[in-house]
Amino acid sequence: DAGVIQSPRHEVTEMGQEVTLRCKPISGHDYLFWYRQTMMRGLELLIYFNNNVPIDDSGMPEDRFSAKMPNASFSTLKIQPSEPRDSAVYFCASSQIFRAPAYEQYFGPGTRLTVT
Amino acid sequence: GENVEQHPSTLSVQEGDSAVIKCTYSDSASNYFPWYKQELGKRPQLIIDIRSNVGEKKDQRIAVTLNKTAKHFSLHITETQPEDSAVYFCAAVVGSARQLTFGSGTQLTVLP
Q1: Which residues pair with A24 in a beta bridge?
Q2: Could you give phi then psi for residue B18, rounded to 5 degrees?
Q3: Which pLDDT tens digit goes with each residue over B59-105?
Q4: In this predicted model, what pLDDT tens digit does every residue of A36-79 receive, in sequence order?
Q5: What whole-number distance in Å separates Cα of residue B106 and Cα of residue B61?
Q6: Is the terminal CB of chain A with fewer CB neighbours within 10 Å at N or C?
């Protein structure tokens, strides 16, 4: 199993540009989570999906952030327009309800986003 | 919603000594408490977890204890080694929800 795959691993962009982060969950996993990690705020849950359906997006900071999961093997997190305060490491994680322990989340390697 | 507080934020111990990290949670409906280890520049990885119907769980040099009455849980690492140096996060899950609420993290440094 390749684990959770994220791309790109590093992204540097200018303020105002659109940024798209990508995630491929572990095959067979039915939950997908997007997190943001910063020194100031720690690990924050942004949104999570169950069977491709968004369940809770209360952590999405602003309308500039949007996330989609068009199928079971792919999800995107988009920031438009990006701002310097969006600079962070963005993690994608997945889990499977019938896998023990049922709540274990497997994290991807993260995307380090820098907005200048 | 759930709130998880974690202490201390930094911890330095001598190699071979024990380390203890403590977390408290607010929602009495929380029923699953994992601990994640994150090495510098790497992803968080689950190292141990405990459910609300268990008071203690051990896995080699690490153990987790849970006090439901006081709503706190702790990570214990014995015979620490330099490779234990990392940031450790506690987390809690409320009821049947799937989302983790993380503590703020503890930077553990094991001094050789």
Answers
A1: A5
A2: -95, 155
A3: 999 999 999 999 999 999 999 999 999 999 999 987 666 788 999 99
A4: 999 888 999 999 999 999 999 999 988 999 999 999 999 999 99
A5: 18
A6: N
Q: Residue B3 and residue B1: Cα distance in Å, rounded?
A: 7
By Cβ distance, the residue of A101, A107, A110 closest to B49 is A101
Residue-level length of chain A: 116
Query: With contacts defined as CB-CB under 8 Å, which chain B residues touch A105?
Result: 46, 100
Reported as type and span, the H/E element at residue B65 is strand B62-67
Contacts of A45 in chain B (CB under 8 A): 99-101
Contacts of B32 in chain A (CB under 8 A): 101, 103
User: Under a CB-based contact definition with an 8 Å cutoff, are residues B25 and B72 in contact?
Assistant: yes
Strand partners, B17: none
